[in-house]
Structures are given as C-alpha cells and as structure tokens.
Amino acid sequence: MTSTDELIPVSHIRQFLFCPRIPWFKQVMSFEPPEQGWVSQGKRWHASQNPRHKRRLNQYIKGPSKHEVDVYVCSRSLGVHGYIDELISNGDQGVVIEYKVDKNKPTLAQKLQLMAYAIGVEESLYLKVAAAVLLKGDARKQYPVDLSSELRLALFKVVAELRKTTSIHRMPASSATEAKCDQCEYLRYCNDR
Ligand code: SF4
Predict the structure, then answer these.
(1) In CATH, what is the architecture of 4-189?
(2) Is the minimum distance from the CB of 114 to ligand 1 under 6 angstroms?
(3) Residue 17: CB within 6 Å of ligand 1?
(4) What is the per-residue pLDDT across 74-121, written as a single tens digit (0 to 9) for each?
(5) How far apart are CA 67 and CA 85, in angstroms?
(6) Which of 4, 77, 128, 178 is 20 to 30 A from 51 via CA?
(7) What spacing in Å lies between the alpha carbon of 18 and ligand 1's midpoint?
(8) Atom 2 of ligand 1 has which residue's CA nearest to it?
(9) Averaged over 47-62, what is the pLDDT?
(10) What is the pLDDT averaged over residues 153-162?
C-alpha cells in the first residue's frame, strides 16, 4: 500500500462478512447513510464504562500504563486503518480493547477486527500487543482473543476478498438472510430484496 487514500477502514472487514455489498456500497458507490442512533448510543456507552474495567485490564501488561480512547492506527501491510476503542500501553506493550454492545461470544468478524487493530498497533505505534480483548454487554464480560497465526492468515484472506469485491463495478451477489436485510441500513439500495 502506498497512499492513505487506499487504506480500507477496519470496520469494513466486519461489514464485508455481514454482507459483501455493504463495503461495496460505501467504497464503490460512496453511499454513506447517516450514523444510526444505536451507533451513537454505543459510543456514549463505551465512554461511560471506562472507569469500571480499567483495573481488570491492567493485568495484561506490567508497569505504569496509560489508557487512551479512539486511537488511530494503520497497517500498510494489510492496507487498513481505523480507530481502536481503547488502547492501554506502557511504552513497550499494548492491550487492544474493543467494546461491543451484544453479549454473545465473539464472532469471527469481531476477532478479525481485533486482529487488524493489533497489526495496526504493531506497525504504526511500534508496540508489541500483549492482549486483545472484547468487552461485551455491560463490560463485565471480557473475551481475550487469541491472536494466532491462523487468525492472521484468515484476516489477510478476507481483506484480499474484500479488495477484489470493491475493485469491480458490478454489485456483488449476497447470500444475506431476510433477517439480516431487515436490519440493514442499505436495504433501499438492494433492488433484489
Ligand atoms: S439489504 Fe441485505 S443484501 Fe442488501 S446490503 Fe443489506 S444485508 Fe446485504
């Protein structure tokens, strides 16, 4: 990757796995629906949760650490960039934290998102990632994600597929279920639904 313009938002990876048309609408058609209420709600929610979990997350790294929210990272090798919900760092190591309002076990998409942020931390902030954690529901439940070589490989494959999909002008096929389409903000653009 050479220019920042070519970097894909990390959030598009998760959206691509939900339905390949979503990043296609965004990147190829430049359709960007207004931010929905629940997104704003989620942001406010995670900001309000910060003091509650701080101490528990410090277990992953030693020494004095700082907590920052909405931290920008990018990965040139992967060609992605984005803002991490929260990053704890001690100068050498970092802990990547992502907040999710659902209470379910981590999905593949959520794990890949964390992996992408972890690679971004290593490449752009020069920190070794000691842990990547999903905080779900009311933030009482922590899900550490195993940043394995298999997950890394899976991520590179998905990003390659995403790039292929958004490099052509034909709207991609989608196997999204009716339940997915019913909650999708792009429904009015899909004339076959
Ligand atoms: S409405 Fe359905 S097919 Fe269209 S983008 Fe949304 S999830 Fe995909």
Answers:
(1) Alpha-Beta Complex (3.90)
(2) no
(3) no
(4) 999 999 999 999 999 999 999 999 988 888 899 999 999 999 999 999
(5) 10
(6) 128
(7) 9
(8) 181
(9) 72
(10) 97
Assess whether the C-beta atom of 16 lies below 6 angstroms from ligand 1.
Answer: no
**Ligand 1 mean position to 96 CA, how many Å?**
30
Ligand 1 centroid to 140 CA: how many Å? 32
- Determine what percent of the chain is predicted with pLDDT higher than 70: 87
| Domain range list for the chain | 4-189
Token pair belonging to 56: 């528990």
Q: Which residues contact 88 (CB under 8 A, 6 or more apart)?
A: 57, 58, 60, 61, 65, 66, 67, 94, 95, 97
Take residue 160 and report the two structure tokens written for it. 């390659």
Q: Residue 1 — pLDDT band, cuts 50, 70, 90? A: very low
> Which pLDDT value is given to residue 130?
96
**Res 101: pLDDT:** 83
**pLDDT at residue 55 tops 90:** no
Q: How far is the CA of 73 from the centre of ligand 1 (A)?
A: 29
